[in-house]
């Protein structure tokens, strides 16, 4: 990545022009000739197909590998992802994996939110920040035949889905229910809504995840980066608005982790798993996300510590630490359960307080033990 601003003129002109035309041509045509219910229905389908091509396919399947899917499922989302015109799966995932790895780092995060709303929303695409040819972080996708096929035929698919297909559906629609102004109008009107308008809306809704979902909303899971949970963004992004959860637990196939949270992408992946089209859906353990203040409880630091210990040849100590860790998890689950009851019962409230204290003691013991190993490798700290 380079700091000097080199503009990618193809991106700049095509994104600006489509935006201007969608804001002018579509309303003008609508007022002059009107759009039919059929045209709006096709627009709706195209919105959902291209939108989920990005969320269910590009994002959760390929970038994060939160589940696995069969070839039919993959091909469908690879095609509609190409129609969404946000680059090939491989390029998109390369940028997105770097976004997670280096989030908010102005040098290495391709769309760092720290560089402001407009940069993370669209200027990074105009400025073409990824001119390097390093594809080291997507070798797995380069070994996937569907991804390489999509990379190769990305442009033909994009043109077919955005121009040919809407016009073709307009043509077929005309043979069933002729347009008052003739065949050309059936094709043009369909292209304007299902092609042009949908193209622009789908772009900006996705771009909001990189811009607004790093500015506007709550941070219930972690404050380690700028990501936010935002219900309103989830509405237009098929559930991707729960971005703080996603940045905290990126391997989870859900973004709206609660059952009631609006996350159609998660519902699609789950339903497909019942039909045998997807499998190995990754979920975080309930106890890990059952409480709000992850950093307060230090879940990640504890797991990190255990991970660090794997390099040490101290089996007895490891066993003791793992036992403490298990006890700590049990205590945390009990605390969560008691907390749920505490809203109605005074006794439970007291229990919560006791458990909370016990839990904190447990955590401190654990951290101290781990620290002492690294400070003095020969000492074996006393642990329950
Ligand atoms: Zn992501
Ligand atoms: Zn993000």
From TrEMBL:
Record InterPro entries: Acyl-CoA_DS, FA_desaturase_dom
Subcellular location: Membrane
GO CC annotation, single: membrane
Biological-process GO terms, alphabetical: fatty acid biosynthetic process
Span of domain Fatty acid desaturase: 40-250
Coiled-coil boundaries: 318-365
Membrane disposition: Multi-pass membrane protein
TM annotation in the entry: 12-31, 37-58, 153-176, 182-201
Domain of life, source organism: Bacteria
Predominant location: membrane
One MF annotation (Gene Ontology) recorded for this entry: oxidoreductase activity, acting on paired donors, with oxidation of a pair of donors resulting in the reduction of molecular oxygen to two molecules of water
Keywords associated with the record: Coiled coil, Fatty acid biosynthesis, Fatty acid metabolism, Iron, Lipid biosynthesis, Lipid metabolism, Membrane, Oxidoreductase, Transmembrane, Transmembrane helix
Family membership: Belongs to the fatty acid desaturase type 2 family.
Protein's name according to its UniProt entry: Stearoyl-CoA 9-desaturase
UniProt organism field: Lentisphaera araneosa HTCC2155
